[in-house]
Give the backbone structure.
Amino acid sequence: MITKRTLKIMVCQVLALAILGMGMFQSGLAKTPKTTQELDLLFVQNATSGTFDGKTLTLKGVGPTIFFTDRPNRVEGHLRTEVLIEEWGKGADSLAADPPNAALSILDENAVKSIVVELFDPILAGTTLSYRVKVLQGKIPPTFKMASLFIDHLRRPGAFIGAALVGGVIGHSIAKKDSEPKTTVVVQDPGTYYVRHYPPPPPRAPKPTVEERIQKLDDLAANGYITPEEYKARKKEILDSI
């Protein structure tokens, strides 16, 4: 069954080229407290080549698995693919219990070709990853070169700052030192981290004009909330601040 989320992932197929060349850097570690929240995670696995025999999809040259969330969380990063495979069958709502749909995007000489599949029974051997698949839409060629697999989706308790995405490992954060940090990178282990992009702070209310401040002061005095002496002193403060 093709879900709305799967169709959304297919729209993301243009990310395949960018993700294959993506790099991120890390600096400055500092401990942070746990903050646990359930996340809906989508995954991207990149391969340098692959094969399909009608039942088994084999991806070769697979590196770490990239993951990201939808709005409003804006979390993305990568983890070792073996960690994801280990988590595949864990929990009542695991990927084994409810097999995910995925969009396989294959880059040929002219365009990106997309095939929608359902994934079962992942096996990882080194950098070769295979799935038993059910093709839902499209046709997978027997052999292909560069490809990305967009997987929908795993729900797991995670943490924006602190606890590990998978496995409960306590991480560390890398954050800007200003009062409104925009990005935090959480390191799980040498091969796993994720990033939380903080939303921009709400715009500050415009500073009231001198006329507005005096009008408010006049209203307070007219309603008896301040004495004439207080009115005179506070009005002087306003005028002196110009």
Observations:
- Residues 210-222 form the longest helix (13 residues).
- The CA atoms of residues 158 and 166 lie 7 Å apart.
- The radius of gyration is 27 Å.
